[in-house]
Each structure stands twice: as C-alpha cells, then as structure tokens.
Amino acid sequence: MAEYSSQLSDLSENITTEDLRQLKSACKEDIPEGESDHIACSRDWFTYLEERSKLAEDNLSYIEHIFEISRRPDLLTRVIEYRTTVLKISEDDEVDTKLTRIPSAKKNKEMSVSQ
C-alpha cells in the first residue's frame, strides 16, 4: 500500500490545475457536473475515483485510459511502470484491455530511457 500511496503522491505533484480540469473533463461521464465542482485538487480526484471503484491499488486501468485520452504520456508512463514493476503485470499479461495499444506511453518511455 505504501507504493500505491507514493505513486498517487508522485502523480499529484505532476498534475497542474489546468491538467485537473482536463482530467475531470475526460471522465465527465463518470463524474456528474455538480460533483466535479467539489474536486479541487488531484488528490480529491483520486479519492473520488477510489470511492467509486474506478481506482484501486491493483486496478489503475481507468486512470491509464484517462491519461491516454488527456494526452499525458508522462503520467501514463509512470502508471505503466508502477503496474509492471510493483504489481508485476506486464502488457503481455493483459489479454482483454485497450491499454496494450498505448503508443504515446511507449514512445515517452523510449525517450526517457534513451536520455
């Protein structure tokens, strides 16, 4: 659980107010407009998702999808690295998922490894 909390803290530090607005917009189908107004920071957003079973220590697929459609390959790469190193779930292990085709994250990871 410590790694999970650390992961969320790390992600929170890299989400600006504008990013948060875009993330909330990307999941507007799951966050009613009135409730969205009460999410003031990224930590609130993560808590909201956890309370609705959209996010858990062993289930990060929802935020992976949101980071992908919000064009945040840097955050997506961090989540994928957490999933593969901490949870030991590789993309090859994920049979039934849209997340195995995330070129933006793969590209971002390749760039960070080569630097």
Give a description of the structure.
With 115 residues, the protein is mainly alpha-helical. Helix content is 61%, strand content 0%. The protein contains seven helices and no strands. It has helices at residues 2-13, 17-26, 33-36, 42-51, 61-69, 73-85, 103-114. α1 packs antiparallel against α6 (73-85) and α6 crosses α7. The N and C termini lie far apart (31 Å). This is DED domain-containing protein. InterPro entries: DEATH-like_dom_sf, DED_dom. One of its GO terms (biological process) is regulation of apoptotic process.
State the total count of DSSP E strands: 0
Q: What separation lies between the terminal Cα atoms?
A: 31 Å
Order of SSEs: HHHHHHH
Structural class: mainly alpha
User: How helical, in percent, are the residues?
Assistant: 55-70%
**Whole-number radius of gyration?**
14 Å
The biggest sheet amounts to:
none
Mean pLDDT: 81
Strand content: under 5%
Low-confidence runs of at least 5 consecutive residues = 95-106
What is the count of helical runs?
A: 7
Choose one word for the global shape. Answer: globular
Structural descriptors:
DED domain-containing protein; DEATH-like_dom_sf; mainly alpha; 115 residues
Topology:
Elements: H1 2-13, H2 17-26, H3 33-36, H4 42-51, H5 61-69, H6 73-85, H7 103-114
Helix pairs in contact: 1-6, 5-6, 6-7
